[in-house]
Write the C-alpha cells for this entry.
Amino acid sequence: MAWRAVRTYTGGCHCGRVRLEVTADLTRVSECNCSICTRKAYLHLIVPPDRFRLLAGEADLATYQFGTMTARHHFCRHCGVASFYVPRSHPDSIDVNVRCLDGVDLATLTPRPFDGRHWEASIGTLEV
C-alpha cells in the first residue's frame, strides 16, 4: 500500500447540514461485512476524538443504537446520510465514513476487510 501523508479532510452528509473535519491518513481504511455496515456501504476510518471536529449540524443529527447499545450510529435526520459514528470496537474514538469525505478518490484506497459478521472472533484483528 502506498504511503499517504496525514492531512486534514472535510466532509459531511448529502444535504450539507452536517459538516466535519478529520485529520488522518487513509492507510487504515476498513470495510466491515456486518449487517449495518453492509447495508450502509460504510468505509471506516477510526480516529481519536482529538483528530475529529464536528463543524456544523449537531442539532441535525439523530442516533440509532442496537444490540449491545455501545455504538452510537449518528446520521443526518434530514437526508439520512451517516458520515460518522462512535464505534462499538473503540467507543472512545470516532469512526468517519470515508465515502463522506470531500475530494477522496476511493479508487486509490485499499480497504482492509473486517469480519463484522463474526465480531467477537474478529475484533482482535482490527487495526486502527
The chain has two helices and ten strands. Strands lie at 7-12, 19-24, 30-32, 43-47, 52-56, 61-64, 72-76, 84-86, 94-97, 112-114. The chain has a mean pLDDT of 90. The longest strand covers residues 7-12.
